[in-house]
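Hey, resending since the last one bounced:
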Amino acid sequence: MSRTDGSADDGAVEVIDPGTTRRAGATGAAGATGTTGTTGTTKDPAGGPRTTAAGRLKALGQAEYVMLVRNRTALFSALIVPVAMIGAIKASLREVDLGKVGMTGIEVAMAGSIGMVLIMGVYANLSAAYTARREDLVLKRLRTVEASDREILAGTALPAVVLAFAQSCLMIAGGVAFLGVPAPENPLLLLGGLLAGLLLLTSLAAATSAFTRTVESAQITTMPLFLISVVGSGLFVPLQVLPDRVATICELLPVTGVMTLIRAGWLGGTEGYDLLTAALTALVWIVLAGFAVQRWFRWEPRR
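The structure tokens again:
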């Protein structure tokens, strides 16, 4: 993602990657992303229209939203699979002694379902989306307009992130209203854990796409994180029921810190030291994922 800036004058060329150029000072980003006119624009010193970051993100998000809605497989994975997994999670706990955990099976299942929303709705879908946009040269074309690299990545992720956040909120409300799950013990902690999860899984999705050749192969490249998260991050079985040595190792997995914060914010029962450890673990993985995106994310097709 490194760049070599050219002259700041209009018409100068900025070299980004081999075979990819950006025209410095170029306007018309709105036209490239489907937003024309004056919406989301300001005047630059030269007197011409210049788009704003908010306007560019809105345009990118709208375009990505249209493609997400048209992709029935992605919508099914994002909307139906996490909800359907509530029953599977609850069934997996029938033989588990939850006495020392202090939670019922439905409480564990509902908290785990939010983790499934993050993994299926954000990580799996975005890994495929970033790969598809790269292979179709969409990302390469977007780099020739005003939007920065971060704006392009964020705009692509925006619909999936908003959808996952809304779905998580609805699942929390539904669990409280219809399934007898208590109201969140610490709403701010729950919100912080959810936002950290969205940021982490989005970054991991972008990093995973760098090693994914096709949209179809995204099902394979996303599988390792899915499996270790389901087994070891507390989505199906709380870490408290695992052997101490195994639980200690599982605490270091990418999604474990996020799930600990979400479960503690909703259901409580977690001590301050464990919360601090979970927050630090989540932060470290966010930083590592961000570094991986900056270092290895690919804007050119893998051909």
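Residues 2-39 have pLDDT under 50 and may be disordered.

Sorry for the duplicate.
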